[in-house]
Amino acid sequence: MKMTWRWYGKGNDSITLNHIKQIPGVEGVVWSLHDKVAGEEWEMKRIEEIKRQADEYGFNIDVVESVNVHDDIKLGLPSRDRYIEIYKDTIRKLSKVGVKVICYN
Question: Has this prediction a pTM greater than 0.85?
Fold first, then answer.
């Protein structure tokens, strides 16, 4: 088991990575791109930016809090396939930076 800490991201959280680094045993941060709405693409540049920020403090980014699922997928609407492809693409991008767990709420 690895101890991680929930982090809302630089500029979104009053707790900085420097603060988290001071907590004994914390190895990683649980994160997300909170400005992204359901169905919106997660760009590799943004994902890599989070990875660089975490790497700077020696943290892993193994866990993403949530990649929001678009309502069209949940409702089985004809437009769902487009949003499923975006979701799959995001999962592939996250795996490239070492993400192992994507929580779904």
Answer: yes
